[in-house]
Write a structure and sequence with these properties.
By secondary structure, the chain is an alpha/beta fold. It has one domain: Rossmann fold. The protein is built from six helices and seven strands. A seven-stranded mixed β-sheet has the order 1-3-2-4-5-6-7, sandwiched between helices. It holds the Pfam family DLH.
Length: 195
Amino acid sequence: MIHIKNNSNKLIIVVHEIYGVNRYMKEVCHSLSEKGLDILCPNLLEKESSFDYFLEEAAYKNFMENVGFSKGANKIKNVIQDIKGQYEKIFIVGFSVGATIAWLCSEEKDVDGIVCYYGSRIRNYLEINPSCPTILFYPENENSFHVDELIDSLERKNLEVHKFSGEHGFSDPYNPKFNVKSAQETFNIMIDFLA
């Protein structure tokens, strides 16, 4: 777990991908803390080391068998319940499976906003209507579904959806699918939203 305190009245809960709290998640936490925000990144995998990207299948299998979306969301909801009295505002920023977990927490009354990076499994939970401001970032291309179809079904909800150049993982400089322009644009939108 990463916990960075800046004596802010805002807490950002960062929810990692299938790989765990890796170098990229640490950098996201550090970048957000540089903006004066308090950061918490729970280790949902509960293991010391993260998975390497070339172990994507093993990482996905481990996540689905040992964490899953419901259990992951319950862990984040428990964190929120434990810490809510210490902050005026709590935001969740999730990446991939972490974005879907953030989505599953978006109806919680103590969540003030969520940012979701390429949450492909959100398509399985379209019955959810976020009760907080919500921003979703998607790439142009996803292997497992049609991005435009999902965006069409999401735009009926009261939230912001953006599509960027690149593929799943575009914001991660350690991922071969990194897209520097899309990463910078999404980061700037996210910072404005959290401010």
